[in-house]
Amino acid sequence: MSVFSRFFPQAQVSLVHCEENQVILTAKNDKTAESEKRQIRLIDLAREATPATCNLNPLLFNGHLQTGWTTIKETTEIPIYYKRKIFEQEIPALAGQFAVDFVVPAYPKTTDPEATDEARKYTLPSGLPARTTFFSKEELAALPSNDTKPMLVALHGLTGGSHEVYLRAALAPLVLDETAGWEACVVNGRGCAQMKLSTPLLFNARATWDVRQVIKWLRKTFPNRPLFGIGFSLGANILVNYLGEEGENCLLNAAVICANPWNLDVTNIALRSTWLGAEVYSAHMAVSLVNLFNQHVDELTHHPRLNVDDMKDVKYIHEFDRAVQCALWGYPTEGAYHRDASSTDSLLAIRIPFLAINAEDDPVRDFILYISVKQAIPYDEFKQTPYGVLLTTSWGGHLGWFELGGCRWFTKPAANFLNLIAKTIDLSVTPMPEKDKEGLYGETLANGSIHKPSHPSVFYPVNRKLSMTIDN
Known about the structure:
Helix content is 30%, strand content 14%. The protein is an alpha/beta fold.
């Protein structure tokens, strides 16, 4: 081992994918006949998107330090500005308002009462997040466009919002670089990002209904824009569930999945199995959830199954899920909720190209645990689907990946992947696997349809136990 590598170690970077069957993408080439356009395998595009090395900050030499540094760096200035639009969920059983924040050019601070929601009609008493104001009626009227800019739809992590530093760091290379030409919006979870609840329903780990409605609205409002998705942590789990539920009908062209916990039951058990997992990570996340609950307690008490007294002794995240998520959604136990909301199986139903990025933290994985625990990463499932590539690093923590200087490494492959798909791939050609492959869960055939075997033993990845209406 050289002196340089001892003091500046590299994280190991690996790509996990289906070896015998990969999605084929068609390259843009206006000078080539349609039948002669260059074909690109998804794994080759993912390799091109992935930096050759992953050199992280040697002072943050394990997953704990990488993860903990995210809280210290919360004040990082990434000048992304938003305008907010309020949506009303169209499905009556899931009624409620939620906020979508659109990235816009920088604007001066304003005292306009309409822009700041001075009356607090939609916003919590402490006001809007920094660099965020409401669209005016005139701005909303001018929002629709026939341009062809690529547009990114982002989903944040647990109790977060559009203001989160990790989210802004991922958006920055796309929306702040004028040559990249991207537009973007963030779908905020119910009750998050300073948004008041209008009904006693919080977000949950499989809450795909709001993002589904937004994406349909985007398709109508911007009919010529190719749409892409990116999710972080719990938002990544929701995004994978959405992509799986949509299958071949998905309106997105591609997606990036960052630090997905994947198997929530495994992650929950791992968090509870050690002092560090329970008393540091689980307890810290529970504090955020309890604070969120308290912000909306007046509205949540209207739910007939929710007992506010059950919140008095909540200390860990699984206790919050037991007291709140089980009550709101009718799950008998938090384990049932975690199993039902997990996205491991959903990835098998995805029918668009996607890149997933997870940190394993190999140097210390034998005795510590992570929010996105390694045992929950679905390596085998990625070896079965031609539509996805799993990028893992041996070091990086949970949404950390801090390099010297404070930049986050994961934003590079994420932005590279999205730019390559948007700028070099002919999105009018449906991505197809190299081979027609009949699997128990059904495989996409050459005509783009999902083959469902006639024999009785059929596995459907998105079958769920929670009965709800999804308006497609």
